[in-house]
Amino acid sequence: MYGNDRYKTSMEILNSGWETSKNLVLASGEDYPDALCSVPLAKKLSAPVLLTTKSEISNEVINKIIQLKVENLFIIGGEGSISKNVEDTLKRETNVNIVRLFGITRYETSMAVAKYMYSNFNMNKEIVVTSGLGFADSISVAPIAAQKDMPILLTDKYLFR
């Protein structure tokens, strides 16, 4: 599956697996951490992950949210990742319940996702800890973490000194 860019690719993946979805996870396509730490959450929600730019949401994404009959939209990351303008446009155009999971840093955002998961689902008591400074390790472990109900916590290289 592919598209002309990462945003179109995420739409193609969604189109291949979902005709309707009560939940949808929206993450920034401009950097990787928020999208990667959202993979186990998306699995728990049986939800697709769509990517967007920071400052605007495409009509294609808005129309897809309506078509899927999404009730709950999970924005991963703060306004530095996905702007308030995008959130306001989604509220106005789609009438969905929006839950924003975020922290001041990517590390705090991964913790916010983990806390949400532990508060709302019966979760495995294990977690994955991986670097928030590069994406290779988190890409490799994301499918396993999702399958085993393990949130992904991002850390910087100095956490375990």
Automatic annotation (TrEMBL):
Q: Name one Pfam family in it.
A: CW_binding_2
Protein name (database record): Cell wall-binding repeat-containing protein
Q: What does the record give as the organism's lineage?
A: Bacteria, Bacillati, Bacillota, Clostridia, Eubacteriales
Top-rank lineage group of the source organism: Bacteria
